[in-house]
Every structure is written in C-alpha cells, then in structure tokens.
Amino acid sequence: MSTNIEFQRGAFRAGRDRYGHPIFIAVAETGSNNVLEAYSDRISRDWDIVGFGSMTDLITGPIMTIASLTEGGMHRYQNGDTKPENYIANWRETLTNGVMDFEKFLYQFPDARAVVRFGENEVEDLESRTRLGWDVELYELLSESDEWEREVEDYFGKTVCFSKPLQVVEDVEELLELPSKKYSPSQERKSIHI
C-alpha cells in the first residue's frame, strides 16, 4: 500500500476576498513511500498546492479531506502517523502564525500560474451555446482576454485550460472571484499550479 508523506507545509497571504477575509495559498512538500529518487534511497519529494482561499475554505475543504486520509494511514508526516484532529490543528497553526508574504511565494515558486479548466464536453456545449448562464460568460471572458493563454491538455480526458502567470496579489484575488463550480466530480475548475 502506498502512503503519502508530508515533509513540510507553508502558507502565503495573497490578498483579501470580497468579504475582506484574508486569502491564503497553502502548499505542502510531499512524497510517496514507494517512489524513490533514481540513484538514492531517498523518497522523491515535490511541492504541491493544497488549496487556496480563506482559512475556512481551506480547513473545511482540502485540509479536512487530507485529514480524513490520516485516519486510514494513507497520509502521514515524515516522522509517523498523526490523528485527523492534530493534522487540522497543525494547519490551523500554520495559517494563523506561520504565514509568509506573497512576495516570498513568488520568490519560491516563480513559475506559479492561475489555471481555469473546462472539460471537453463542456467546451462543445459552451461554444455551441447549448449551455447558458455564467459558464458561457466565464468561457467568453477568458477566451477574449489577452492575459489568459488557452491550451488543450490531456488531463483525465481532453481539457481546455486557460492560464496566466501569478505576478501580483490581485491575480489571486481575480482567480478567486471568477465564478466557478467543479467541472467534474473530482476536479476543481480553478487552481494554482507551481
């Protein structure tokens, strides 16, 4: 059985949402106990975005989901297992007292990009206008913008992605304010890639 191992975590302040709540970008350096570097016995590690949004959004969303995996042993710290309540408490502590500025995030992750995804079937509906509402508005807004680059990737089936580099706090605030819903049961429409 494979276990996801968390080595480090961090949080960066990235502006405020429309209600005035701070926006955070939560990151974690993780690896899998059965994936080793090619010429050593060291576990291969990589930084990933855990999520972004307000503290409430992060704790009740991705952090709670990962915490549930600690109960069954699917996710742990490098020094051993933890309980879900401890995992959540550790993230709450990081989001309260261990937050770094957005400039530090840009320095550590210079290639960070905001990403908005549309599934292949969605795009056909949007372009033929059989799907109406804010989906069409969002798709057209991103399609007509000079800031957002369009690309097609093979990611759980063909996906149309719009992305742009994160350069200032306002880029994260803009991404958060874009209307969205999941484009598939397991995939969020909006994300940040590092």
Short descriptors:
alpha+beta; 2 domains; five-stranded mixed β-sheet; 9 strands; 36% strand
Note down, in words, how this protein is organized.
By secondary structure, this protein is an alpha+beta fold. The protein has six helices and nine strands. The chain has helices spanning 55-71, 84-97, 102-108, 120-127, 134-144, 169-177; strands at residues 4-16, 22-36, 43-53, 75-77, 99-100, 113-119, 149-154, 158-165, 190-193. The strands form two sheets. Strands 1, 2, 3, 4 and 5 form a five-stranded mixed sheet that branches. A four-stranded antiparallel sheet has the order 7-8-6-9. A hairpin with a 5-residue loop joins strand 1 (4-16) and strand 2 (22-36). The chain is globular, with a radius of gyration of 18 Å. The mean pLDDT is 85.
Q: In whole angstroms, how far apart are the ends?
A: 27 Å
The number of E-state strands comes to 9
Could you give a short account of the major beta sheet?
5 strands, mixed
What string gives the helices and strands in order?
A: EEEHEHEHEHHEEHE
What's the alpha carbon Rg, rounded to whole Å? Answer: 18 Å
- Molecular shape: globular
State the helix count: 6
Secondary-structure-derived class: alpha+beta
**Low-confidence stretches at least 5 residues in length (pLDDT < 50)?**
none
